[in-house]
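Explain my protein.
***
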Amino acid sequence: MATTKWAIDPAHSEIGFKVKHMMFTNVSGNFEKFDASIETEGDDFSTAKFDFSGETSSITTGNADRDNHLKSADFFDAEQFPKLTFKSTSFDKISEGEYKLTGDLSLHGVTKQVKLDVEFGGLAKDPWGNTKTGLSATGKINRKDWGLNWNSALETGGVLVGEEVKLNIELQFIQG
């Protein structure tokens, strides 16, 4: 069976995250510049191989001061580590439309395995005849596992920035 290549549709995709701030509210953000692709055998996604890269300097949270801090050596160190990457190692079907995506996330000079829950939206043709697919992925990582250790203690106890990062990823791909 022939290999099918799927390219990201960035206009209909989002790489989002949430982190606790001051122990009680979430701050959301995303990466604005990224690329992703999938390779499958025909239209069989059980064989899917995912490849993703994002520019760390494209992080945005809606606050320029916070974004600049995140890009600094305290966090992503975007100058020294301009990209984060993900390469899948498996895509396992759990039930109809539900998968577990496992792969290696490289960030800040560290590579670790992560597992994401994926909702597979199936295949559909858009109004222009292009075959598309959509996936929603969620998961959690501990930022300290990748050396993103900066924090500040609060007078009332606890810390300014949570360690757990919740990932919320919406991806749309076009068959190419």
User: Anything to note?
Assistant: Residues 64-71 form the longest helix (8 residues). Helices lie at 64-71. The longest strand covers residues 110-125.
